[in-house]
Design brief:
By secondary structure, the chain is an alpha+beta fold. The chain is built from five helices and 17 strands. A hairpin with a 3-residue loop joins β8 (160-162) and β9. α1 packs parallel to α3. The protein starts with 14 loop residues before the first helix and ends in an 8-residue tail after the last strand.
């Protein structure tokens, strides 16, 4: 029986441990899927088993004996790739790098941290082979009257695209309350199996070009960021001012937004929430920013300023982002002759 999960860790220096990690993921690709009807081995798997066990050889005494199995990790991997059953990746976070999908490189001997990762190139930018890459964006938002109070309205956000792979998120800034949102953005290969095949076919040549062992090459298949943003009131509320939360009314033209499902908040003393926009992008080096207009401002130009007095009651900010990656890496046996 296979373990439910087995995590590949950079600390693993034991050759058997890393080989087991690869074998577990490859064996899962050989097993029948639960939604494929009756549980039985596929013709692909049967062929692998037959080719591995049906040959004989002479031993020292001249007797015909079954040949020792010679099925390699490379055979298993190619079989799974051809069957579209090899989409496994390893993952890590807080790498200290701004990776892009397609980056490849290695961690030098004696190092165990991605902060020491040496990027050698990017197969999406330099290789003739075309790889399909897709962007992903997910966000949630909530309100909080104070640090000690319970959050209100933790719901998903509905962004809309802007030019240049940018994304616009709509948020309501509430007087005397904190509005927060969490944005997760990433880019990834649409087919991880294509990346595995590329590394199998071209990994040795890439390694020779950079004078490293091919099994040390690591290929980034997904890269992204996870970051919190907020609007905070600049002033303390009057003693009699207590926000009253109620579900957002899409039929109310005063606060209706076609881009986001929000919560409307009624305040006494004619206090009015304001709609603001958060502009983000998975492009490395892009700095997210708040705006009073859903318009992308090119990098290197002046970001919009909140001139209107109604925005001056708020602080607009962001927490420190956390990056994450998924990667693939072959084993020594993948390059055995």
């Amino acid at each position: 029986m296979l373990p439910k999960t087995i995590q590949y860790r950079r600390e693993m220096e034991n050759e058997d441990a890393t080989r087991i990690s690869h074998l577990v993921t490859l064996t899962k690709g050989l097993l029948p899927r639960a939604d494929n009807g009756p549980i039985s081995l596929s013709s692909r798997v049967r062929a692998l088993i037959d080719n591995d066990n049906n040959e004989e050889e002479d031993n020292f005494f001249g007797l015909r004996m079954p040949r020792k199995p010679k099925m390699t990790l490379r055979q298993l991997r190619l079989s799974n790739i051809d069957a579209d059953a090899h989409n496994h990746t390893w993952n890590g976070d807080r790498t200290g790098h701004q990776f892009e999908v397609g980056d490849y490189g290695y961690i030098p001997d004696g190092k165990r941290d991605f902060k020491d990762f040496i990027i050698l190139g990017n197969i999406v930018k330099t290789e003739v082979t075309k790889f399909a890459v897709s962007n992903h964006a997910y966000g949630t938002h909530w309100f909080q009257e104070s640090v000690a109070s319970m959050p209100h309205g933790n719901t998903s956000m509905e962004p809309f695209p802007l030019p240049g792979d940018a994304t616009c998120w709509t948020l309501i800034a509430i007087p005397y309350a904190e509005s927060r949102c969490r944005i997760i953005q990433s880019s990834s290969f649409e087919r991880v199996a294509d990346a595995w095949r590329f590394l199998l076919l071209h990994g040795r040549d890439l390694a020779m070009k950079h004078d490293i062992k091919p099994e040390k090459l690591m290929l980034i298949t997904q890269a992204g960021t996870d970051q919190d943003f907020y609007t905070r009131p600049r002033f303390l509320p009057p003693p009699s001012c207590h926000p009253v939360y109620q579900p957002f009314d899409f039929n109310n033209p005063g606060f209706n937004s076609p881009h986001s499902r929000m919560f409307q908040t009624r305040f006494p003393n004619n206090l009015v929430p304001v709609i603001v926009y958060l502009i983000t992008s998975p492009t490395p080096g892009f700095e997210p920013y708040w705006s009073h207009k859903p318009v992308l401002v090119p990098q290197g130009t002046t970001r919009p300023d909140f001139d209107d007095h109604k925005y001056r009651a708020f602080w607009f900010g962001a927490e420190w982002p956390s990056d994450f990656i998924h990667w693939i890496q072959l084993h020594t046996e993948d390059f055995a002759e």
